[in-house]
Amino acid sequence: MKKELRQKLRGLRDPETNQVAIPDVFDARAVFAGPYVGNAPDLVVGYNPGYRTAWESVTGTVAANVFADNTRAWSGDHCIDPRQVPGVLFSNRKIDCEQPAIVDVAPTVLDLFGLKLPAYMNGVAWGVAAKGEKA
């Protein structure tokens, strides 16, 4: 069933614009790991910019149309295909890492507080310059 849903949702196009609304659908068991993977949804839909799930869907409402204009302001969400969001990292200290990744934030914070990284956690702590150390 999951495989069929993924196949049918991947590449779904907006009939008005012919743009792909959903470039990919991820099987959570294939992209997440650790002791809490059972809490993840079965599938994670990655939308193209300008598309997202309907507001009504959180209440279980199924709209008549698959695509509808958003009439409410968005304050930000996590619906976009993660490969399309490069991210921006601001730091007041030098980070000694070629390509910092979001998965490394929690291990870095734990390391800065002198706490041990749980074995199930992904990522590695960045080398972070001491306060006042020149970049």
Characterization of the model:
This protein is of the alpha+beta class. Helices cover 15% and strands 13% of the residues. The protein has two domains: 2-84, no CATH class; 87-135, no CATH class. The protein contains three helices and six strands; from the N terminus they run αβββαββαβ. The chain has a two-stranded antiparallel sheet. A two-stranded antiparallel sheet has the order 3-4. The protein has a two-stranded antiparallel ribbon with strand order 5-6. A hairpin with a 6-residue loop joins strand 1 and strand 2. The N and C termini lie far apart (52 Å).
Strand proportion = 5-15%
Number of strands: 6
Let me know the largest β-sheet.
2 strands, antiparallel
- The ordered string of helix (H) and strand (E) elements is HEEEHEEHE
The helical percent reads 10-25%
- Continuous helix count: 3
Read across the widest sheet, the strand sequence of neighbours is 1-2
Q: Span from first to last CA?
A: 52 Å
Q: Report the mean per-residue pLDDT as an integer.
A: 85
**Shape field:** elongated
Which residues sit in consecutive blocks of at least 5 with pLDDT less than 50?
none
Q: Indicate how many domains the architecture comprises.
A: 2
Taking all Cα atoms into account, the compactness measure Rg is: 19 Å
